[in-house]
Write a structure and sequence with these properties.
CATH class of one domain: Mainly Beta
CATH superfamily of one domain: Gp5 N-terminal domain
Mean pLDDT: 85
Low-confidence stretches: none
Order of helices and strands: HEEEEEEEEHEEEHEE
Number of helices: 3
Helix content: 10-25%
CATH architecture of one domain: Beta Barrel
Largest sheet: 5 strands, antiparallel
Radius of gyration: 35 Å
Oligomer: single chain
Strand order of the largest sheet: 5-2-1-8-9
Shape: elongated
Length: about 230
């Protein structure tokens, strides 16, 4: 005959059954443990990112469950969880979550499935409360060092991008006492030809105002794309 020596640990203690109050307190505590409030979670996958309505993530609770015999059991994946975006009306800062991000999930006190589908006022989809299924995700906890960021410092604001920095607007305006551009190459797009022509025209005017006087070397006249020389007679 084999004897099972496995030890099991429950949530009771020696005082649990001693008196009506201890028994009632234990029952209250057991009910409170069914209320999910907030937990650290990790993003498994993301749907609907970029310039689009705010999307959803699939997340996993990071604090594992523990059985009575001290074995850990990982939580399953919670699907279709709305994630937070800083947005007011049609103005937004778009920083979509990525797989592997660590954030926090808040669990609503009522079923929000109908609200998620309609994106407007709707009744609860069921009578469940504080359930994992009614999670909302907020990112930005316990993550690593960023390589692309906006940094607010006492000396000013620093914008860093490892690839490109692009501004799209009908009018882009910079008001500054001093504007510095440190770049190996500056490309002006459609404006480049107009700038070159402006520089050429000013240089031509300055060049043609200058004369060497009579005699060699010959006087020169500059036009767009050409320089002509002629000798002034004595």
């Amino acid at each position: 005959m084999t004897t099972d020596t496995t030890q099991y640990y429950g949530q009771t203690d020696p005082s649990t059954g001693q008196g009506d109050w201890n028994r009632q307190r234990f029952l209250i505590q057991q009910q409170m443990l069914n209320l999910n409030t907030s937990m650290p979670v990790q993003v498994i996958s993301v749907q609907a990112t970029g310039v689009a309505p705010v999307g959803f993530v699939n997340i996993q609770v990071m604090a594992s469950q523990v059985t009575g015999d001290d074995r850990t059991v990982d939580h399953g994946v919670i699907p279709n969880v709305p994630y937070f975006r800083l947005q007011g009306g049609t103005d937004a800062v778009i920083i979509d979550p990525k797989a592997g991000d660590i954030g926090i999930a808040c669990f609503c006190s009522r079923d929000i499935s109908a609200v998620k589908n309609a994106r407007k006022l709707a009744p609860p989809g069921s009578r469940r409360a504080y359930d994992f299924s009614d999670a909302m995700y907020m990112g930005g906890f316990l993550n690593g060092t960023p390589t692309q960021y906006i940094h607010f410092t006492p000396e000013g604001i620093i914008c860093v991008s490892p690839t490109a920095f692009k501004v799209e607007a009908p009018l882009a305006r910079v008001d500054a006492d001093i504007a510095q551009v440190n770049a190996g190459t500056v490309q002006l797009g459609d404006l480049e030809a107009a700038v070159y022509r402006l520089v050429d025209e000013r240089m031509i005017a300055l060049f043609n105002e200058h004369t060497h006087g009579l005699g060699p070397p010959p006087d020169q006249e500059m036009g767009l794309g050409q320089i002509t020389t002629h000798t002034v007679a004595n």
